[in-house]
Automatic annotation (TrEMBL):
Lineage of source species: Eukaryota, Fungi, Dikarya, Ascomycota, Pezizomycotina
Biased composition (Polar residues): 1-10
Protein name: Hsp70 family protein
Protein source organism: Paraconiothyrium brasiliense
InterPro entries xrefs: ATPase_NBD
Region (Disordered): 1-22, 127-176
Low complexity: compositionally biased ranges: 128-148
Length: 470
């Protein structure tokens, strides 16, 4: 049975998506907000607006929005002073958190960035294994645990709603305390630190693209298997108790930095009403939404927000990524979109490319309502360009074992090249130009071999190689 369309805006109080869907009767993906009854759309949205804490003009308010992306993440916010209606806040009043630790400006790049890499690294190379009485068995990952049920669907959702709730799983399955002495690096600091040392072996490598761990489809199978190698080691060492801990840890760093920046600018005050917004893919498993909601709640607490703000994080406003992008673009361009008009939105992100078709429910203020057709999402995001680039380098350098010296590994060399590619060439190349080429890639000690397009300390990719990557 094809998924139904739904109203676009929903405020979740302890996000309750209802009973676990019957995957035999549903599309492979479950739309985040499909669990709302169709005949309740209008009443639900009206009720949400009436009880929305941001609509209380008697208080100073701030909306903090989290875009947790596959390759980069962003925190945006808007301050609503006392007496000002949300309808009167222009898009220019929306700001983004910047000044992320570890960012270093490179030639041709901005002085500051408003996005930060979605990367996390638990550096325990110098730490001994826990003693045998504290060492956990290799606990199953979320995927393995959920797949133990005969009634599991293609996304690993078990038949009981409590089994899918990460808050229930953590309390029921794990008793050993986490090893909190391990140094955590996040965002730009991951690559900055790795550039000063050797990339560690695979099972203790940094976590990248781990958002796709929440997508249990065939397209992410290889990536999830690679992540499972790292997560297994982290569980063995009691660094994490559950796979979902990595989302909580990353969001804690992200929100702690956001809180510090907002307090420095005096835009976050003690008695403000706070609302948190989470952007999610157009189609996402219900279990993924539960995992992220739990992670946001815990991250808000660990980041040091006050008790009122922690309570506010439970009233999590979820919105699909393409709709959030569309509302911003339409507001910035001041485009005219009239009631009952239809708009097609394509959101090309780091992990997925989402396509959604909405009908305009109201033109002032803009409200996108029913989906004309069910949303679609494919794993063709920008991070796959990076992966293709890494695979191409790995194939070209696999026989150049002389490069493995002074603590370097082929993995560390390729990873460093990939980071420079992301920050430079990938952002400047015109893939539609027939003359487009990637600048020679610097690889220390690379020996000249014109047949392979190797030159002294330089590797030149051919145009065919560029086409493969892009």
């Amino acid at each position: 049975m094809a998924p139904t369309t739904r109203s676009s805006r929903t405020l979740y109080d302890h996000f309750d998506p209802g009973p676990t869907p019957d995957f035999d009767e549903q599309h492979d993906y479950i739309d985040v907000e499909m669990t709302i009854e169709d005949n309740a759309h209008e009443n639900k949205e009206q009720d949400v607006m009436e009880h929305d804490p941001v609509s209380n003009i008697e208080r100073d308010r701030i909306v903090i929005s989290i875009d947790f992306g596959t390759t980069f993440s962003t925190v945006a916010y808007a301050v609503l002073p006392k007496g000002v209606s949300p309808k009167n806040i222009h898009v220019r009043k929306v700001k983004c958190i910047g000044k992320f630790p570890g960012y270093r400006k490179l030639d041709g790049m901005l002085d500051t960035r408003q996005d930060v890499p979605t990367e996390l690294w638990y550096n325990f190379e110098d730490q001994p294994l826990p003693s045998s009485d504290l060492l956990s068995p290799d606990l199953p990952s979320n995927d393995e645990a959920s797949s133990s049920s005969d009634d599991d669907g293609p996304h690993g959702d078990s038949s009981g709603p409590d089994d899918d709730d990460p808050r229930v799983n953590r309390a029921a399955r794990h008793i050993n305390p986490r090893n909190t002495s391990v140094t955590q690096y996040w965002g730009f600091n991951v690559q900055q630190h790795l550039n000063t040392m050797n990339i560690p072996r695979d099972e203790v490598s940094p976590l990248t693209r781990f958002k796709l761990k929440l997508d249990n489809t065939e397209a992410t199978e290889k990536l999830r298997a690679d992540l499972d190698t790292i997560l297994s080691t982290l569980r063995q060492r009691n660094i994490i108790n559950d796979d979902s801990d990595i989302y909580t840890d990353y969001l804690t760093h992200l929100l702690k930095h956001a809180k510090e920046q907002l307090e420095l600018s005096k835009e976050l005050c003690e008695n403000m009403v706070v609302q948190f917004v989470l952007c999610v893919p157009a189609k996402w498993p219900v279990k993924a939404c539960r995992t992220m909601q739990s992670a946001v709640e815990q991250a808000v607490q660990r980041a040091g927000f006050n008790s009122k703000t922690q309570e506010a994080s439970r009233n999590l406003f979820m919105i699909s990524e393409p709709e959030a992008a569309a509302e911003c673009i339409l507001a910035e361009a001041r485009s005219d979109l009239y009631r009952d008009e239809t708009v097609v939105i394509v959101d090309a992100g780091g992990g997925t490319i989402d396509a959604v078709t909405y009908k305009c429910a109201n033109d002032d203020p803009l409200r996108l309502s029913e989906e004309v057709v069910a949303p679609d999402s494919e794993l063709f995001g920008a991070s796959f360009i990076n992966k293709a680039f890494e695979d191409k380098l790995e194939k070209k350098l696999e026989r150049e074992q002389y490069l493995v010296q002074n603590g370097k590994t082929l993995k560390s060399i390729i990873q460093k090249c990939a980071t420079e590619f992301e920050d430079n060439e990938k952002r400047r190349i015109d893939i539609y130009s027939p003359m487009a080429t990637i600048r020679p890639i610097y690889i220390d000690n690379l020996r000249e071999n014109p047949r392979k397009h190797f030159y002294q300390n330089r590797l030149q990719l051919k145009k065919y190689d560029n086409a493969v990557a892009f």
